[in-house]
């Protein structure tokens, strides 16, 4: 160790006493940082400037008529895109768009055809036609441009879907709103009359008992009958007005019945599409299981995960609609169908978890786990069973129940009309009885007896009216009115977008440059180690007092010099990231520590390779860098890399160096931090041992090989 320190001290004196050497060493320490800083700054936030990314949009839509309203979904989409600055939308004609895509003026084009709205609104008819939109992209211009243009396609599809669903439902709720307004005007009168008739029926015995004692209270009875008779004209007028309004409401109900039936048809179409989707998911899972060696397995598993999420959203929307209907008009068949759909949704949640487990297994092993694959297929099969039950139950039970509810809208109004007509006939008879009772107190006894008998004769009629009214639930009426009074535009918007996505990032990194800092910093440190072995000698020269120093001590003495410079390189890179570029860093001391440890580990590896193997070691270090860059998961997820890299990734120093920098940038997870530090230290120790055991045995052979190479005069 003392001899190694002699070599180290000799290098430090040579550097500090020679200004030129000091300048070159300073440049060697700073140069790798420039590589990292330039690349980080260049990729700081490329996806924030896509507003200048040109995408041509052509609208040929001629529109259509829907529910007596002229619609043009194409124009609506264009208006919305004009306010969308995420991409550089260019609204041009078809010829200009076609030529622009070919010559590179536009990266992509989207064309809405003439019959687009007509085909789209046909989805609510008996013969739906699926509309088509033309999409072209020039993949030659730039590989990333294809991904950005695909985002343009997604934006357009979202605008079309939202506009169409919102418009259709807005018209349906407009029709329902007319019904709700008319019912609201007469709600108070209807409920007042209902309570009055029910009260008379319940107090019939009390009334007849009062008439039996009228002989002793004739005068008071006359006053009471006169006052009571005075209220009859207002009741008659109220009944007539209510009856007219009720008949008008019934006509509106019949018009609305057709619109509500169309909504039910859309629900059935959604359920059938859910059944078709789960069938496709199951077939895709079976193909993955039967062809495990396919390079598309990972992508197909990801597709299954996305399809399950989409299917879960669709079923949640269906459940929400049925829940609203069931709250307004409770029905056992609808409740049963909601239960079937809830079972399907729970099964989807279980299947989603199994797919995630399968993805995690594939990520860690690079292969499909038999148990995870079988569990995934069985859970998808279970989802298929539940959705099939839900669709079958909807067709046989829930759909008829919904039809019954629709029909009851009109029948309830008819019953109300008949009830009011009967009530109108009762009022004149009661008026005649009261008139007779008021003619004189001398006839009060006789009249009270007649009135009692007449009331008893009408007891069955009043009882019948009361029983019919009691069957009409106040809460049901209020519930129906409340639904019909909702804002049609608000309801249309709600159904087109029934939920808001709340994003909650985990370990949030605000910009792309900060996210790329780990891979660029790690790569710069490896490049820095290569620069050190390229500019500085790995073998110390002869110096006074060093004649008897062994090869091994010379090796470690020189390594000390390289490690010291590596510490400066690591510190400069990390300090510049923070102070010059203002990279987002949650834990800067941790980044500084990883920068220094990584630089020491990389320098030890590269120096040992070059010191022990000479120029061959340099070649190995360069090849090792290239392979690590492609296979460490620094830029793209390792799961999308070829299997060769997925297998080797856990053995690359880059993997743990990049992981450590990421912990510092986004927020540390201590278990990951410890693993990254330990692995880097293990690599350092491993190459120290390689130098210790192989430097001396290979020294003469490598020197002989290097001398032969120099004699060729093609190297310095």
Automatic annotation (TrEMBL):
- Occurrences of domain ABC-2 type transporter transmembrane (ranges): 27-192, 550-664
Query: Which Gene Ontology terms cover its molecular function?
Result: ABC-type transporter activity
InterPro entries membership:
ABC2_TM, Phage_infect_YhgE_C, Phage_infect_YhgE_N, T7SS_ABC-Transporter
The listed locations are: Membrane
Membrane topology per the entry is: Multi-pass membrane protein
Q: Mind telling me what this protein is named?
A: YhgE/Pip domain-containing protein
Alphabetical UniProt keywords: Membrane, Transmembrane, Transmembrane helix
The residue stretches assigned to a coiled coil in this entry are: none
Listed transmembrane segments:
20-38, 518-536, 556-576, 588-613, 620-638, 673-694
Q: Does the keyword Glycoprotein apply?
A: no
């Amino acid at each position: 160790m003392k001899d190694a320190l002699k070599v180290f001290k000799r290098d430090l004196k040579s550097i500090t006493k020679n200004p030129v050497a000091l300048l070159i060493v300073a440049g060697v320490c700073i140069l790798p940082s420039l590589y990292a800083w330039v690349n980080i700054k260049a990729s700081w936030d490329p996806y924030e400037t896509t507003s200048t990314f040109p995408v041509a949009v052509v609208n040929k839509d001629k529109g259509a008529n829907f529910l007596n309203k002229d619609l043009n979904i194409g124009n609506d989409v264009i208006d919305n895109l004009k306010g969308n600055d995420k991409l550089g939308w260019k609204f041009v004609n078809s010829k200009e768009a076609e030529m622009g895509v070919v010559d590179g003026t536009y990266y992509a084009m989207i064309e809405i055809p003439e019959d687009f709205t007509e085909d789209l609104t046909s989805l609510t008819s008996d013969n739906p036609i699926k509309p088509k939109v033309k999409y072209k992209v020039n993949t030659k211009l730039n590989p990333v441009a294809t991904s950005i243009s695909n985002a343009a396609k997604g934006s357009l599809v979202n605008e079309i879907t939202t506009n169409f669903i919102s418009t259709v439902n807005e018209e349906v709720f407009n029709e329902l709103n007319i019904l709700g307004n008319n019912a609201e005007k007469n709600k108070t009168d209807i409920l007042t009359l209902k309570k009055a008739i029910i009260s008379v029926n319940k107090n019939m015995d009390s009334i007849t008992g009062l008439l039996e004692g009228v002989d002793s209270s004739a005068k008071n009875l006359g006053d009471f009958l006169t006052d009571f008779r005075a209220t009859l004209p207002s009741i008659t007028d109220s009944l007539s007005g209510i009856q007219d309004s009720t008949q008008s409401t019934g006509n509106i109900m019949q018009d609305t019945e057709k619109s509500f039936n169309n909504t039910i048809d859309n629900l059935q179409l959604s359920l059938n599409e859910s059944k078709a989707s789960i069938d496709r998911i199951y077939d895709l899972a079976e193909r993955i299981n039967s062809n495990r060696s396919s390079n598309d397995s990972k992508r197909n598993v990801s597709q299954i995960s996305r399809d399950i999420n989409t299917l879960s959203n669709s079923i949640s929307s269906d459940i929400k609609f049925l829940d609203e209907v069931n709250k307004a008009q409770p029905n056992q068949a609808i409740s049963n169908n909601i239960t079937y759909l809830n079972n399907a949704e729970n099964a989807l949640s279980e299947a989603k978890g199994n797919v995630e487990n399968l993805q995690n297994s594939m990520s860690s092993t690079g292969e499909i786990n038999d148990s995870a694959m079988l569990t995934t297929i069985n859970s998808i099969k279970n989802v298929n069973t539940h959705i099939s039950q839900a669709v079958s139950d909807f067709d046989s039970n829930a759909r008829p129940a919904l039809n019954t509810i629709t029909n009851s809208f009109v029948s309830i109004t008819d019953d109300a009309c008949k009830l009011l007509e009967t009530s109108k006939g009762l009022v004149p008879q009661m008026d005649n009885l009261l008139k007779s009772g008021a003619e004189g107190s001398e006839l009060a006894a006789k009249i009270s007896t007649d009135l009692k008998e007449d009331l008893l004769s009408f007891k069955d009629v009043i009882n019948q009216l009361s029983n019919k009214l009691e069957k009409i639930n106040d809460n049901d009426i209020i519930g129906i009115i409340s639904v019909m009074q909702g804002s049609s535009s608000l309801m249309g918007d709600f159904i087109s977008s029934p939920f808001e996505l709340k994003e909650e990032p985990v370990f949030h990194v605000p910009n792309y440059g900060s996210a790329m800092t780990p891979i660029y910093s790690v790569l710069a440190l490896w490049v820095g180690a290569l620069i050190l072995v390229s500019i500085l000698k790995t073998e110390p020269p002869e110096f006074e007092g060093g004649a008897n120093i062994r090869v091994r001590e010379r090796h470690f003495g020189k390594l000390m010099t390289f490690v010291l410079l590596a510490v400066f390189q690591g510190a400069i890179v990390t300090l510049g990231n923070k102070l010059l570029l203002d990279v987002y860093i949650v834990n800067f001391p941790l980044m500084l520590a990883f920068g220094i440890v990584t630089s020491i580990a990389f320098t030890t590896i590269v120096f040992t390779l070059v010191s022990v193997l000479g120029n061959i070691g340099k070649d190995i270090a360069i090849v090792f860098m290239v392979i690590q860059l492609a296979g460490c998961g620094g830029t793209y997820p390792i799961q999308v890399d070829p299997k060769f890299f997925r297998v080797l990734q856990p053995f690359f120093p880059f993997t743990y160096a990049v992981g450590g920098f990421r912990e510092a940038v986004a927020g540390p997870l201590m278990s990951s931090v410890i693993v990254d530090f330990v692995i880097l230290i293990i690599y350092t120790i491993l190459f120290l041992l390689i130098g210790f055991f192989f430097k001396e045995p290979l020294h003469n052979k490598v020197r002989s090989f290097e001398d032969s190479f120099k004699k060729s005069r093609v190297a310095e």
